[in-house]
Amino acid sequence: xxxxxxxxxxxxxxxxxxxxxxxxxxxxxxxxxxxxxxxxxxxxxxxxxxxxxxxxxxxxxxxxxxxxxxxxxxxxxxxxxxxxxxxxxxxxxxxxxxxxxxxxxxxxxxxxxxxxxxxxxxxxxxxxxxxxxxxxxxxxxxxxxxxxxxxxxxxxxxxxxxxxxxxxxxxxxxxxxxxxxxxxxxxxxxxxxxxxxxxxxxxxxxxx
Length: 208
Hints:
Elements: H1 4-19, H2 21-34, E1 42-53, H3 56-59, E2 63-77, E3 80-87, E4 105-112, E5 121-132, E6 144-156, E7 161-171, E8 182-192, H4 203-207
Antiparallel strand pairs: 1-2, 1-8, 2-3, 3-4, 4-5, 5-6, 6-7, 7-8
């Protein structure tokens, strides 16, 4: 169980993170740009995000739209990848989307793609944790730590570019008054820094 000391640490970290979010974004881009070589398998992505909260009475919001969500992933071995992402409330679409508060988070996840990393269609499972900023709709709210589990997939349309979608369930303990459990859906594009060899497979080829 997460104790009070850890929550205080997460709160302090998130405050610094939100204030310096553009610096963090710059570091993400710099890391990706410097990592391209023949051995590394780095992928960066940009997407839109939609969050649905399970307890509207707690956060005073039902749906919350965010853009952009920026992530960077590194393939490790045996179908495993590590992924880090930032979700920012930097773009509002009025009057179509109105948010009661700005949802910001930092995510760290481990992915497993069933050893299908070289296919054009790559499904995966993901598990990890997030640091979610305090909602302004709750008085004296604090940064919260949540646990993540989800599924997703990437369809590679070229050797560099792909389309990605992912849905995650973010669990927040009931005793955490500053956040509630919620689902996050993301849809966007990804870019592989190293050209991929596209593998054309079909159901008929497998049957033969």
